[in-house]
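Worked problem 6 (solution included).
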Amino acid sequence: MRTPERTNAKKQRITLLGVVANESTAGARKLLKKYNEPDALNHKDLEFKLSKLYSKTDDKITLEKEIAEIHPHKEFILHNLAPTPEIKEVEVENTITKMANDSQVSNACGCSNASGGISGVDNTNLRSTRPNNDLMILGIIAIISIFALAYRKQ
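Solution. The predicted structure is:
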């Protein structure tokens, strides 16, 4: 029977702070200095002092952001996780098309027929009070665009 990796004594665990200590040594040392911590003797000591700093700090979110800024693979991660504008445009178009189709076909309450009017009622006067479908779709596009821009800024 094979032993699971987590119990394999030969495998050494690599932590996030270990990666930062080994690959962004200068940034990690500056971080220690910023928080008035003594300088590290080697990479292992640097990792230990970073973890000690993290455990004793009160504002963990700020420290996590600072660690993320000096992470050696930051650009790679952001590049590969950031949504591309082409995907957003396709998703927006698909959502708009789906919403438009659902609003035209919807008969869930049983009160509208395929022409968009009310069953059994003369709908000639209602057509003039109903908003233009093009205007409604334009409004939906505007709302989704605002959400997309707000999402991009985060």
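Discussion: The CA atoms of residues 96 and 140 lie 7 Å apart.
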